[in-house]
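Lay summary. Proteins are chains of building blocks that fold into shapes, and those shapes determine what they do. In this project we predict the shape from the chain. Here is one chain we studied, written as its sequence of building blocks.
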Amino acid sequence: MSLEDQIHQWVLGLDGVDTVYSADPLWLTAVKQLGALVGAGDSATPVPFVVCAEEEVNGRALMTVKVRIGTDGSVPAPALARLVAAEIRTLVAGQRPEVDVKTVVEVAALGV
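And here is the predicted shape, written in a compact code that computers can read:
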């Protein structure tokens, strides 16, 4: 199981998290899917729910983890975002202690 999949499953198990949405906004996901269909002629690429990007900053590895969540309303959104970010940093640090972690947690607000 990839690190992204592990983070996805971990976040889904946290209190207050109802769902994990695509890491990209809906419009960007649609453009990527359309591009994959037109360009390669194959089926659409899988939608990433968690995106991990690694780069080197000042001689040290930095991993940026991006996730977009939906809440069930039991935990205030700002507190939930901080909790999810802390849990992601703990999970990554346990597996990759040599990497600094930056987390981007977006709380999706879907209105009807």
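What the prediction tells us: The helical segments are 3-12, 26-40, 77-95.
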